[in-house]
Design brief:
Helix content is 0%, strand content 47%. It is mainly beta. Strands 1-2-3-4-5-6-7 form a seven-stranded mixed beta sheet, with no helix packed on it. It has a five-stranded antiparallel beta sheet with strand order 8-9-10-11-12, with no helix packed on it. Strands 13-14 form a two-stranded parallel sheet. It is elongated, with a radius of gyration of 24 Å.
Length: 174
């Protein structure tokens, strides 16, 4: 279509303004672009990604934090959406795991010292694994029945627990 064009442009050279923009336009309307912003001297530059008439969708801030749906990310990945900020992890086969690793230490292995929250496609179950030298399943919810299995003791309303027991401090309807 002749109305589409690929453009690279040098814009403003002021601090915190798009200096260089690269993208696809439909006539004069931004269809999809990447803008590179100038910081002060050798630090502070950042990038933005625009779609659908120039609306900013994602930003990589000067400190490396990524914002999706927001312009001032507070964590490494910060997602904001008025319809709910959901993340979909989808394996392309049914027998694989899809999940999130959480570890302690700067560059710790995801397989030690932390937790792995995942969907186990081979067993059709949601699981939480934790551990130190290796992770093992501590909590499971079966997809089809909703049954929950704990690999340890369960405490409700109390900080003290007798080994091998279910302690409830307060009212319980069983």
């Amino acid at each position: 279509e002749s109305a589409f064009r690929f453009t690279t442009s040098v814009e403003d050279t002021s601090t915190n303004t798009p200096v260089f923009r690269h993208g696809i336009y439909h006539n004069t309307t931004e269809n999809a672009t990447i803008a590179f912003y100038r910081g002060g001297s050798s630090v502070g530059g950042f990038m933005t990604f625009q779609t659908q008439n120039g609306n900013e969708r994602m930003r990589i801030a000067a400190d490396g934090k990524v914002g999706i749906g927001m312009t001032d990310p507070q964590q490494k990945i910060h997602i904001v959406d008025t319809n709910g900020a959901n993340i979909i992890l989808n394996s392309n086969t049914g027998a694989e795991n899809s999940g999130v690793w959480m570890t302690e230490g700067g560059v710790a292995s995801p397989y030690t010292n932390g937790a792995y929250m995942h969907y186990d496609g081979a067993n059709n179950a949601f699981k939480i694994n934790t551990g130190t030298t290796s992770l093992s399943t501590k909590f499971t919810i079966d997809r089809d029945t909703g049954n929950a299995t704990f690999a340890g003791n369960v405490t409700a309303g109390s900080n003290s627990l007798t080994a091998g027991s279910l302690d409830i401090n307060g009212n319980a309807d069983i």
